[in-house]
Records
---
Amino acid sequence: MSDSAAAVTAWEALFRAQVSVMRYLNADFPSGDLSLNEYDVMFNLSRQPGRRLRIRDLNQHLLLTQPSVSRLVDRLTARGLVTKMADPDDARGIVAALSDEGFELFRQVARGHIRSITARVGSTLTTEELATLTELCDKLRLGATP
């Protein structure tokens, strides 16, 4: 098999696995309180120092367009789960921060989501395979960064 054919075959396997797992996780998502996209925004904010990030930078972590991210942040802000403020380093930018209430809701939803991930991914692969998968995915992600 040529290098190109091997790369395409590997990509197709990765893509199909991702679609299959995401369909399962989406169908099994544990809460009516948040959509999976809202959870993803809150997950990414929860991993940042001070649980805050410029919306422009948040967009780099998501598979959504900038306007979609802004609308999601606005919806979460209206619910008191996220706050928005001008960036103190650049007044043109907006910083989104996870509120205490938002962090608590995120943690509650995360517990159920973790159970679902464990059932679909953790029960399919061994601990060693999970470590290899993590290593390979990190390598792909870092290699794809412009």
---
Amino acid sequence: MELKSLLKFFFKWIFLCIIIGICSGLASGLFLYSLEFVTFFRELNQWIIWFLPIGGLLIGYLYFLYGKEVVSGNNLILEEYSNSKKRIPFRMAPLVFFTTLITHFFGGSAGREGTAIQMSTSISDQLSSFFSLHNRERKIILVCGISAGFASVFGTPLAGAVFAIELLFFSKVSLKSIVPSFLVAFIAYFTVEFLPVQHTHYMIPFVPNITIQTLFWTILVGILFGIVAMLFSKSTHWWGRLFVKHINFPPLRPFIGGIVLALTVFLIGSTKYIGLGIPTILESFEMQQWVGIFAIKILFTGFTLGAGFKGGEVTPLFFVGATLGSFLSLYIPLPTALLAGMGFVAVFSGATHTPIASTLMGIELFGLQTGIFVGVACFVSYFFSGMNGIYSSQVIGGIKKQIYTGIKNR
């Protein structure tokens, strides 16, 4: 590449990354602030959960009338990257923003990463037409959208940048995407840092030395985290297929699902399993949890998203992993906080097939001293989580595919 072309590429992508990073950071900041508000209101007024079916019906009708092209959410982004057809409609951003808030306001069990990524990517993709970018450049735009959305909503720029690349790796990510992915992640992250929004902080006060014994226990729990990640992914997809099979009219799916969820919350007598579940995640780092908590959260989240409510899967994955790790500290001779942190990122790793990004997230959230423990747990979980993940359109390849193809062909 000639110097003139290199400089043109360099300044062009700095400019695009600044626009994407600031816009994505502002969108995530507004979303996080709004999400905190609706969660606070719901917890103070728990009677609102009885209106979850109405909220579900509203979500269903909004997507039925205006969102048929974007209803597949993150899978649409992955499909557009692999096989570009047309620009992602801008309306994906406001639709997923408001419908995710409705989900959390009335008491659904969902996350936030899917919303942030969809907002960021749909905003970013508008630049493809405005600047007349060709298909290879548009792929970089989509990488930047994913990176900025993830980094800004979780406050983890390194993990966000790598997550976008790793998620799309087997869909042939261009080397030219790497620098923009990192640049836009940090711009989006610092944009949120300037806003009156705070990310959740986690503490692991004690990390033991790496020995043969602690390494053995880390591998063992990594296997368990991978199996649970596979269970989470299969649960979400199973509920989705069940609702589609038995309820033909899409708006009725979240309406009926909302009735079941509201009644279940009433019968259980607790709001622990709805919303993001951040208080329970934080509690997992301080005290051992009951074994059934992670399983109930899987059921609640799979049912909520399968019914057609909107939000992400990642924060529920954090919940599942942290509570499972916390419970395992009853039997595994490792600190409760460390096991909760390992589960936090390892279940996420297995469900998204992104062990490198998950390891970096663990280091960013818990500190460099946890690196070996979270890294081993994330990679073991990745290999034991099967070929299915939360994103059905994700392309899986490499050693993992060879291993599972070999097992299947035996």
